[in-house]
Amino acid sequence: MKAIVTGASSGIGRQISIYLSELGYDLVLVARDIRNLREIQREIKTKAEIVAMDLTDRSNSWKLHEMYKNEPIEVLVNNAGFGIHGPVTETNLEKDLELIDLNITALHMLTKLFLADMKKRNFGYILNVSSIAGFLSGPLMAEYYASKNFVLSYTRAIHTELKKEGSDVHISVLCPGPTKTNFNKVANVNFNTKPYKAKYVAEYGINKMFDEKLVIIPGIKMKLVHIASKLFPNSLTRNVAYMIQKDKLK
Ligand SMILES: NC(=O)c1ccc[n+]([C@@H]2O[C@H](COP(=O)([O-])OP(=O)(O)OC[C@H]3O[C@@H](n4cnc5c(N)ncnc54)[C@H](OP(=O)(O)O)[C@@H]3O)[C@@H](O)[C@H]2O)c1
């Protein structure tokens, strides 16, 4: 049993890797920081291969698929991602493009490439990591929220295709709320609410993925946010999102 986890060097991806190893999976750990990846490799009990690569470079998604297309990959977790905080005209355009390359393009490529292999075997699980932000518009984090909207919408659409085809390949989308990881450091903000533990989010996500649940939202509070996003108009929820994001700068 083998699983690929992107963004395995830290946070949610690190905990997902550890948990999949506890479940007996050999792993392919993908991220840029080779030292962190080696640490996880030493920590886990099953076999783990390290692929140190920058997934904002499109050629690396092709390369990752080339490396593993002939192996029976049972689980793919598209977790690598990051956020940028600030008004649209003040954030760096090159950084925005990197966000789109990682949060959208790499996730899209790896889903499409490995899904085709899984469909041939009629077996496998894909977990795409979106966010509670995937249900919302996010002023002051506009690109990030929009990227997570893509992940949610894309995954839901594929889920329906698979169901209509009667496929035994399963795809899920994990939509966590604030979680204690390196995410905030990278986005240069502070949480204004008590964050969830990465271990809880990771284990909840993997368990629900194996239960074949489509949209996975860890935590009661975040489930309520999801319900609110359906009940209240976008004009209201995006104003609330603005206040939350503005508060994060304090
Ligand atoms: N933490 C939260 O509050 C929260 C909430 C909702 C959703 N999420 C989502 O959860 C996912 C994991 O984030 P996290 O919270 O665990 O943050 P994190 O601790 O910063 O982890 C991000 C992971 O992505 C990898 N990564 C970043 N840029 C990369 C690149 N160019 N190429 C390859 N790998 C790259 C990082 O590894 P390297 O730096 O070693 O490359 C790291 O392993 C993200 O998709 C994030 O959007 C997080």
Comma- or semicolon-separated keywords:
single chain; 250 residues; alpha/beta; Rossmann fold; seven-stranded parallel sheet; two-stranded parallel ribbon; 9 helices; 52% helix; globular; binds NADP nicotinamide-adenine-dinucleotide phosphate
Which SSEs are present, and which pair or pack?
Blueprint: E1 2-6, H1 11-22, E2 26-31, H2 34-43, E3 48-52, H3 58-68, E4 73-78, H4 93-121, E5 124-129, H5 142-165, E6 169-174, E7 179-180, H6 183-187, E8 196-197, H7 198-210, E9 215-216, H8 220-231, H9 234-247
Parallel strand pairs: 1-2, 1-4, 2-3, 4-5, 5-6, 6-9, 7-8
Helix pairs in contact: 1-7, 3-4, 4-5
The structure holds NADP nicotinamide-adenine-dinucleotide phosphate (NAP).
Offer a quick outline of the entry:
The protein is an alpha/beta fold and 250 residues long. Helices cover 52% and strands 16% of the residues. The strands form two sheets. A seven-stranded parallel sheet has the order 3-2-1-4-5-6-9, with helices on both faces. It has a two-stranded parallel ribbon with strand order 7-8.
Tell me what the structure shows.
Helices cover 52% and strands 16% of the residues. The chain is α/β, with parallel strands linked by helices. The mean pLDDT is 96. The chain has a single domain (2-247), classed as Rossmann fold, CATH 3.40.50.720. The strands form two sheets. It has a seven-stranded parallel sheet, with helices on both faces. Strands 7-8 form a two-stranded parallel ribbon. It has helices at 11-22, 34-43, 58-68, 93-121, 142-165, 183-187, 198-210, 220-231, 234-247; strands at residues 2-6, 26-31, 48-52, 73-78, 124-129, 169-174, 179-180, 196-197, 215-216. NADP nicotinamide-adenine-dinucleotide phosphate is lined by residues 7-13, 31-33, 36, 54-56, 79-82, 102, 129, 131, 176, 178-179, 181-183, 186. NADP nicotinamide-adenine-dinucleotide phosphate (NAP) is lined by residues 7-13, 31-33, 36, 54-56, 79-82, 102, 129, 131, 176, 178-179, 181-183, 186.
